[in-house]
Design goal:
- The complex is a heterodimer.
- Chain A is 40% helix and 27% strand.
- In chain A, strand 4 and strand 5 form a beta hairpin.
- The longest helix of chain A has 22 residues.
- Chain A is globular.
- Chain A starts with a helix and ends with a helix.
- The longest helix of chain B has 19 residues.
- The two termini of chain B are 38 Å apart.
- The chains are: A alpha+beta, B alpha+beta.
- At the A-B interface, helix 1 and helix 2 of A face helix 5, helix 6 and helix 9 of B.
- Chain B: This is Transcriptional regulator.
- Chain A: This is Roadblock/LC7 domain-containing protein.
């Protein structure tokens, strides 16, 4: 299995409540890799649809000239969490990780922590 | 370097879709690049407009100088150039996959313009890099269409795509990204966006997008459209005698001379007269 899928499948197995996870290019919306329950959510559509959110937020941050960078963004649905994490590595510029969690089973703090590890694993 | 024209609109899909359906293996070269297929999926694209994986990795400092050429030689007939890059310790498997896909997406944006009559297919030909991550033609077309939509929103600044990038010299406001500031730093009035992308080893698409954004913000000068031909006053003619310098009163404002015969209430003729006048004014 390729490295991207390995990192994503680690995410699926190590993050409690994970429904799906994808690595997405945010100018084209293409999911470079995606894993998860496609019955619950079409990850390719979710990936493409969220690129505008990410672009808008990134641009706003640049305009505000805040020194910090975005670690992740959280979108809370009534029964799901969606976590978006821009990839910061040199080779991963322009990409973000997209994680969908079942809200009833997920531990948000732990999931964010694990997703950060997935990001570092991507470039291993 | 660079395309002589703005990046083409996405291709009519026919030929590539057929290749995907027939699960072909080989190389398909067109006017803007070459696609390498394995079982109907694309695993490598070389485009004349976008910096390839080698330029990107070298510019990012991942590969030593000549490292890309060494990999090409070492790959030889086995077509395992990608594995060679990783085994040399120059980059990790994950980095290779990510950078490779980024380069492939970028090249696809320009190479997908593929008129069937200008394409030639060589069955069985493989790329020395080897298969790293194949992508379906459908995914590439969708990704390219979304990128095109982003670029098309800035259509009024399309002239900035192919002309040398000239910074306007005004103070750079906060609302620019690090990438954009880097582009402004490198812009010297001689290099086009395509050439800047190649110099920096960065995505040609992202560079076009940033330069158009900078042009829209007035931070990059857009070349003016070609000057219009001198306008002729209706009724004026070149060899008319110059007006006497000592005219008793100021020259009357130029007037449209319409023969009386056209002074009509017939709507069809009135339309023709208006049309003629408008055409004269355009001359």
């Amino acid at each position: 299995m390729a490295q991207m899928e390995t990192a994503l499948s680690d995410a699926m197995s190590s993050i409690e409540g994970a429904v799906g996870v994808a690595l997405v290019d945010y100018t084209s919306g293409m999911a470079l890799a995606a894993l998860g329950d496609n019955q619950a959510l079409d990850l390719n559509v979710a990936a493409a649809g969220n690129t505008d959110v990410v672009r808008a937020k990134m641009r706003t941050m640049e305009m505000l000239e805040l020194t910090g960078s975005i670690e992740d963004m959280l979108i809370t649905l009534t029964n799901q969490y969606h976590i978006i994490r821009p990839v910061t590595g040199k080779s991963g510029q322009g990409l973000f990780l997209y994680l969908v969690l079942d809200r009833k089973r997920a531990n948000l703090a732990l999931a964010r922590h694990r997703l950060a590890k997935v990001e570092t694993d991507l470039e291993v | 370097m660079g395309l002589p024209i703005s990046p083409p609109p996405p291709a009519p899909a026919g030929l590539l879709d057929r290749f995907a359906a027939e699960r072909v293996t080989g190389a398909l070269s067109g006017p803007h690049g070459c696609f390498y297929f394995l079982d109907g999926a694309v695993y490598c694209i070389e485009s004349t407009a976008a910096p390839g994986l080698g330029s990107r990795l070298t510019a990012a400092g991942k590969l030593p100088p000549q490292g890309w050429e060494h990999a090409a030689e070492a790959a030889g007939e086995r077509r395992t150039g990608g594995r060679f890059l990783v085994e040399e310790g120059w980059l990790t498997q994950g980095e290779l996959e990510i950078c490779h896909l980024a380069a492939l997406l970028d090249a696809a944006f320009f190479a997908l313009e593929l008129p069937p009559e200008a394409a030639s297919f060589t069955p069985g030909t493989a790329h020395w890099l080897g298969v790293i991550r194949p992508v379906s033609i459908t995914a590439l077309q969708q990704a390219t269409a979304r990128r095109r939509a982003l670029l098309d929103r800035l259509q009024p600044w399309a002239a900035a795509d192919t002309s040398p990038v000239i910074p306007a010299g005004t103070p750079v406001p906060a609302a620019t990204t690090r990438r954009q500031r880097r582009l402004l730093d490198r812009a010297d009035g001689r290099h086009t966006p395509y050439e800047l992308a190649r110099l920096l080893g960065e995505s040609a698409f992202a560079t076009l997008l940033d330069i158009r954004l900078l042009a829209a913000a007035g931070l990059v000068l857009v070349p003016p459209p070609p000057a219009p031909l001198p306008r002729r006053r209706p009724g004026a003619c070149l060899d008319a005698p110059p007006a006497p310098a000592t005219a008793p009163h100021p020259a009357p404002a130029p007037q449209r001379s319409v023969p009386d015969i056209f002074d009509t209430t017939d709507p069809n003729i009135a339309l023709l007269v208006r049309l003629r006048t408008a055409l004269e004014e355009e001359l």
